[in-house]
Amino acid sequence: MDGNDGGGAGSAPLSGHVVVELSTGIAGAYCTKMLADAGADVVKVEPPGGDPLRTWSASGTRIESGSDGALFAFLAGGKRSVVADPDLEEDLDTVHALLETADAVVWSRGSAVAEHPSLRPEQLRQAHPHLTVTAITPFGLDGPWSNRPATEFTVQAWSGGIIGLGRGAPDRAPVHIGGRIGEWLTGATAAAAALASRARTRLTGDGELVDVSMLETQILCLTYHPVSFFDGLDRPFRTERRLTVPGVATAQDGLVALGCGTAQQWFDLCVMVGHPEWIDEESPLSITEQAIKMAPEIRAWIAERPVEEILDFAAALRIPSGPVGNGENVTGIDHYRVRGTFTDNPRGDFVQPVRPYRIEPGTLPEPRPSPALGEHTRDCRLRVGTPRPVDNRAAGSAGPGPVRPFDGLRVLDMTSFWAGPSCTHVLTMLGADVVHLESASRPDGTRLIAGVPVSEDDWWEKSPIFAALNTGKRSLALDFRSERGREVLRRLIATCDVIVENYTPRVLDQIGLDFATVRTLRPDAILVRMPGFGLDGPWRDNPAFAYVIEDSSGLSWLTGHRDQNPVEPYSVGDPNAGVHALVGLLVALEQRRRTGEGALVEAPMVDAALNIAAEQVIEFSAYGTLLERDGNRGPVAAPQNLYRTEELDEFGRPDCWVAVAVETDEQWSFLRAALGDPGWAADPELDTAEGRRRHHDLLDEQLARWCRVRTADEIVEVLWGAGVPVAKVMQPHRQSEIPQLAHRRFFEELDHPVFGTARYSTMAARFSEGPSDLHTRRAPLLGEHNHEILAELGFDDAEIAALEDDGVLGRTPVW
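Predicted structure:
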């Protein structure tokens, strides 16, 4: 299934939507790539020297003069390029004239054009009030940290994402998630925010400022609502770092990934490795603790067998599993070949992933080439003064006060765990009526994984993870395995604009609820399906947990130390899928606005992951270089690493760290001065990035010595004050202590009748036109709104009572 073939950008969902890109770096470029991929006319305004991404290669491959690097060609596909010198009044006038004809701007720091005083976000809003201005910064546009130096690496440390869910061996430094993951995630988040703002603009006719924070993005995508967990259960989600078992393991002929997300999967793994006697349903140990205890024998069994045999065993037992992808091997994996997951870039010299969602029916543009520097400058100047088209379909009649862009949108949320609920949660916060479907026999999985003993009263209502992902939603606990349950479901679907589900594909097949059936119930409904690996292909029915998605896409490959197997991020696979599915959903809503028709959006989790891991495939296919994990070093900054401090952590362990990253020669001079200009730092070789990279071991040794006798707070005060990117490696549950988050009101407090009072994270974007409070009500109790929702569907009290008596509706888990 692929509804993307044929047609040009002129018939695409965002056709006619003009976006001016005033950004450099991955985040802004990926945001605008996602808009261009949906048909937007993206005009990239560059200074005379061009975007530095044009000459970028993560492996250091030299890009010939007049050529563009492969990553730039991927991110700039389908865009136009205009060159403007902000020091020339004529060029500046041209940019402002272009903005008058545009609908939106995507802005980030780092470009001489974007940094011009008249082209900063607040000034753009004043000069061009019709524009939606999406600004991407490390910490947000205002607040005590708004102008502090930062890199993706140091922001990841502040977010708690480096410690994450206890990632990494306790006898080594914790490891960041490689591949500049925060920039890609922020780009996708910014694209979703820009599209949400477009929906609001259609209601009011006015633009707004959308303020996107990389810190908040990484908190949402790299940690598991740890503040809510700590508030509700008075303990951290995890108190120690450890390697996942089995995780990524060495087989006879390569690496393989296996995981156990449920007790049943652990039992099946015991059977697979020939030890059914390990199964102990009464064990006081968690399945993770049991797996760690048996790790040597599990790994020995894996080491004696080839990868394919292990994967075949695991698939037969429905144990989450997959190959370990990287830039060299991932394009040859059979499942991706069958589904056409990769394609040639239009310039023909490298391979790239296709967009992370597919829409049927629909016309999305085929991949288009990236522009030469300034290719469209003359055309742009000729068009200056052309009036901006007025869209008469914009209502412009919204009442006074903040407008939630999805007021009136009704969504059926047939999702569970993290990926699907994170997608629909954004819709809830922005006004949609979201009905979260569960059943008494199959509650949302996040109700069950908080570690609350089943001996406690109402234990299933005490999950902070469920509570954090489902604020504002209504709960319908309906067993649709019966015909009567399916009849209720069909009546509900007929009232919904959007249906989102993330079951394995066979579930909807079994109940006969495919897209054709949905269209008979509601012709303009949008059905968003979020399978792990897609609706077809050899892996169609494989169970998909976040870690398997990370392994199979290459996200794990770049995470960890070189002398050890890759370490699974164990976090990003789910929320990344959620934000990419949200982008696909919002594009489909734009298409429905044009055509009046519904659509099927297929947004596989693994396709979303392959897109944010795209640089690995691009680098290998373009230059023959396999990108490798390198601990906490990275391709941009040198030095970049974690350094232990003198104090003990809150658990009494010597496990406190700071992150330091020097991206520019100027920052190196700041660091040298902050250290007191020591003799070792006077070597002229260290004055250049190339020299610092060659002497990284020396830099690590000296910085480790300097940090080891200081506290993290002392180090941050000295280095940050001097202009050096630095961060404390935060325990995730301490995020609420960050003053920048308090300033931006990132956490909002809610009361819950069972769970109590807790703080909940909101969104990584702030909208200048509101709403200011994003959580309108607490998460629902299981089946709390059964009666309310069925009454809306026309059921009377007697009918509802009969459904309750027969177990079709429920309020308490039934096992």
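Summary: Residues 1-9, 392-396 have pLDDT under 50 and may be disordered.
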